[in-house]
Amino acid sequence: MSNFEYAFPSIRGVQAGKEYYVSMCPLRLIPRIFLFDEDELSPELRAQRTLNRSRIPEMARYILGNKSDYVFSAITASINGAVRFTPVDNKKADERLGILHVDMKNQFIINDGQHRRAAIEQAIKEDPSLGDETIAVVFFVDQGLSRSQQMFADLNRHAIRPSKSLGLLYDQRNDAAKVGKLVALKSEAFKGMVELERNTLSERSRKLFTLSALCSATSDFLGMREFSTPDEAADEAIAYWDELSKHIPEWQLVRKSKMTAGEIRRDFVHSHGVLLQAFGRVGASLNAGKKPNYAPLANLKKINWARLNARDWEGRVMMGGRLTKASNSVVLATAFIKKIIGIELSPEEIKAEAAFNKGRAKK
To answer: Looking at residue 40, what is its pLDDT?
Structure first.
């Protein structure tokens, strides 16, 4: 090796009979030495996916906005040349601790963590003080392109993103998530009826809604209004949802165990995310004045919520008898409910309703 080299304090380990090394690298070092081969190589000659640059600003903001408690997992990289490991002590107990020497002529290719690298680079440009902090790096000695590509495939083979509901459940920074959790746990309308971990509900699930659907609907209800605390926002949302639930008899039957959640979701549209979000938008209109006016909700009894009621729901929130999650379906459902209960439609809803009626007239 040459006289010019990097020296990384490391722990040496063995996987599949091959040595690897774990080190802590200063953040300022990450963009300087770790390469990403996207710009110069075609996909079959690269060792990782292309960089999704739209993710970088959000990830950088996450670091900058949470400098006292951000968390990044380790970066995995390959070294495309020989390395030398010198133990701190040659005694058997300590031979795993030492210094990893890497010739500066070698290259470091990221196998996993290219978006973290790019976000770190952007964050340091905005706040250089972050450069003294560290991130864990796992080094493998490269055995050629095919091995690096296989490493990328293996590292991502079992990587599964948590469901949106689970992410919201554990998110302590997102006020909308905090409010949604409070509504799910404290409201009479939803207590015990919200799936907190999964994004979808099985036919046998005892829950009526997912946490992600409730958070979205509650955010639509609250709109852009400002509250001093999440608890204050949740109290306002709970007051609306509890009043609304009084006018959806089937929800109460589930709560009283007189009907199962599966039967309700199978037979009625009002127990699906698209309608829940529409209810949120309806509530925002009813709460737009100085004082909320929920009296029009009594007119919800005029609506036939049955999925068999194709005249009202087909093409609006259903396609071929199946519920659709399209954003336009939320607008059309909101417009329909507002018309029935007698409140004014927004310009977007008027336009969507006109297009819907025009399309139906041509059939």
So the answer is: 45
CA R_g for the chain: 28
The arithmetic mean of pLDDT across residues 304-330, rounded, is 91
Q: Where are the beta strands (DSSP E) in the chain?
A: 5-15, 18-26, 34-35, 75-79, 83-87, 97-103, 108-112, 134-141, 194-195, 209-210, 318-319, 322-323
Letter for the amino acid at 54?
A: S
The yes-or-no verdict on residue 13 having pLDDT over 60 is: yes
**For the chain, what is the domain count?**
2
Are 61 and 105 members of one domain? yes
Overall pTM surpassing 0.85 (yes/no): no
Q: Give Cα 343 to chain centroid, integer Å.
A: 34
Check whether 8 has a pLDDT greater than 50: yes
Which of 124, 142, 157 is the C-terminal boundary of a domain? Answer: 157
Last residue of a domain, one of 110, 129, 157: 157
**Contacts of range 296-301, beta carbons closer than 8 Å, 24 or more positions apart:** 296/341, 296/342, 296/343, 297/243, 297/244, 297/246, 297/247, 297/341, 298/247, 299/340, 299/341, 299/342, 300/244, 300/247, 300/248, 300/337, 300/340, 300/341, 301/247
